Each structure stands twice: as C-alpha cells, then as structure tokens.
Structures
1.
Amino acid sequence: GQNIDQPTEMTATEGAIVQINCTYQTSGFNGLFWYQQHAGEAPTFLSYNVLDGLEEKGRFSSFLSRSKGYSYLLLKELQMKDSASYLCAVKAEGYSTLTFGKGTMLLVSP
Amino acid sequence: ETGVTQTPRHLVMGMTNKKSLKCEQHLGHNAMYWYKQSAKKPLELMFVYNFKEQTENNSVPSRFSPECPNSSHLFLHLHTLQPEDSALYLCASSLFGGSDQETQYFGPGTRLLVL
C-alpha cells in the first residue's frame, strides 16, 4: 500500500522561511511531486524530485532522501500570496498515477 | 491559466438527478484523469484514460461513469449520487500516462453538492 504523511497546518510570518515535510512509504518509487493549491483553485505544479538532493527554483526548493522516504519543500522570503495548501505526491514504481498526501495548509501572516 | 478547463464550476444536485461534468484540455496531452478531493482527505484518483482508453478504474462506484470521446475531452456522468459524494472533482491531464517524469496539470475543479 501507499502512505504519505505531511503536517495538516503550519503558520509563518511574511518574509520568513518555512519547511514543509513529507514522509512516504510506497511500493517502489518513481518520483515525488509538490503542488500548490489555493482555495477554490487548481493544484499547480511546483517541483519534481527523483534523485536525492536539493532542487532549487527561485524562492522554492525541494529536497529528497530516498533512503529515508523523506522530502521537504522550503519556501523562502514568504509572501502573503504563499498562503495555500501544499500537496506532496509520490509516483510509485510500475504505476503511472500519483498518490497524494492530505496536504499542508500554510498560513502566512503579516 | 493551466490549459485545463472544467464546467460547471459549481453544481448542486438531488440524489435522483443525472448530471455530467466536463473537462477539456488545450495542452495537446494524451492522458486525462478524474480525481475526487474531499475535506481533510487526500486527492483520490478515480479514473485514468490514455489515448481515449480507460487504463485505471480505482474501485469507483458505478454511479460515476466516465467518458473520453477524444484526447482533449473527458466527462464524468453522475446519477443517483449520495450526499457523501459531495466533494471537489478535479480533472488533470499529462502528456503520456506512463512516463515517469510526467507532470499532471489540473483544472480548477467542479464543486459538487449532493442534497
């Protein structure tokens, strides 16, 4: 079976840095995705990791450790518009589809 | 604008009604997906179509009936739904359904309320 865990909610202050963790137990592994979803809107793609290490993309970075079944999304210089739900999703080996975590609701305050 | 559109955006229906959700992608993709998103639950995959052929049905009740007439359009026909089917229904597409590094692009969803 597939299991993906991430915190339900996090709060942070504008301008700060926040790290959203995701742990997974899946039957095989073929990549991990992070999506951002604002209330009432479509999830939008943020990052993809398949090899260990850090992928940096502007203010957002994503890290993966396959041996630990662990990933995090790092958001720097937080802005109010970063308030959203962040979804971790894993593509298990042999499957074409994604398994999603419940999402982490991030609230950025002034 | 993600290139994936869904209509209607909001739908209220009774348990005896029949309605359809529509999804259209303008990205030239060949795989399309239906997901259900309920409060405090993960996105749940319902159906996958690759090149118009259904390749996955994730044990979805028969009151949900998908249709994919071509690679750009996907429908979800609804009949005799239950109140617990109230949720956000998301459509997504990707270039090819079986590629490892594929990114799925989502539509804005249809917010469904079953009374």
2.
Amino acid sequence: DTEVTQTPKHLVMGMTNKKSLKCEQHMGHRAMYWYKQKAKKPPELMFVYSYEKLSINESVPSRFSPECPNSSLLNLHLHALQPEDSALYLCASSQGLRRSSTDTQYFGPGTRLTVL
Amino acid sequence: SQQGEEDPQALSIQEGENATMNCSYKTSINNLQWYRQNSGRGLVHLILIRSNEREKHSGRLRVTLDTSKKSSSLLITASRAADTASYFCATPPFGGGGNKLTFGTGTQLKVEL
C-alpha cells in the first residue's frame, strides 16, 4: 500500500468555524508533512512530524494546529481562518530516514479548502 | 525564498513531441528531485538525481544535472496527453535531513492531441 489518503476532499468553512483535516498512511513511514499550495504556485511546507514529534514549524499562524496521534495519522486543526487561507492542503509522508537526503515523499491528493 | 526557478513557466506541445523543462537552484545540493502534479491533485515523485550524477533515465524521462551551473533539466520524450501536468524540481537541505524539500516555481506542461 503506497497510498496517502486525505479527508475531506473539499471543505468550505466560515471564519468562525472549527474544522479538521485528516491524513493517513500505512506504509510504515515515520515522517509526515503538511503543505499549503496556492493556485499555480509550488507547495509551501507548513509542518513536519518526525517519529510523532513536531520537528519543523515554518512559522505558521496559530490558527493552524497540527496533531500526530500516532505514526499513521496526521491531523490539521483549523480555527478562525481567513479567506486568504483558502488553498489546497497537501499531506505527505516519507520513511523519515535521519540524516538522509534521499527520503522520497509520497503525497496525498489534497484537501481543497475554501474560507468564506 | 524558493530554491529553484523553473523555465519555461508554461509549455504547450503536440503529442509525440519532446518536452524539456529546466530548473536552476541557488545553493549546493546533495540531490535534486522532480515531481509531477496533475491538476489540483497531489504530487508524484518522478526521479531523483544525486549531486555526483550527471544524467539519469527512467522510462521516457531523462534528467541531467550540471552542478557547476546549478541547473537541471527534465526531458520527456514522445509526450502523451496524459503527461499534461505541472512539473516541479525540489531539493532537500544540503548536508542531510531530507525532511524539508524546497520546490521550484514549476512548469505547466500541456500536451495536445
């Protein structure tokens, strides 16, 4: 199984709502990632979890809150978002090989988020 | 800031033709990776070329790397309509720790029938 799954596929939320994005992989990977991608732009890294610990936070606003309940699951909790947060949110995973630069990332299909 | 700049930004070709896209980067690298993204979907890893390699092939893909010029190119031969996608180069941090990929600006390829 080389698949990363993400739910929901689409999400529309108001600025006062609280919602969560979910990501799951069963490849035994120990690193998981959240990216944000605007239209016609490259993905921008938000967070990295390595062995269930947050290892990288790219100065993301606190209205985005990641959570890694176990090695297979990754959540992104959303609260009080702004319209400019509308984007495609991509989850990825990799083996998490420490001190390795050849750690291939596998991406999920993304969640298309619209903030009204 | 982004590591890689890609050109062209957009490329339109006929099915059967070859497509070449280029990536330039700014700092030393251990390797350079190419990813494909179909419209509004996740990215798919295509190929990785290490800094001590000059050329690598995978099926209809040919990647070259020139570390003296800090540039790489991706050639897709005998293109098909299914190759229509955005293509990104990406580099991990130099010195190890492959977690933080930095993506280039991307090339949008359209292959017409």
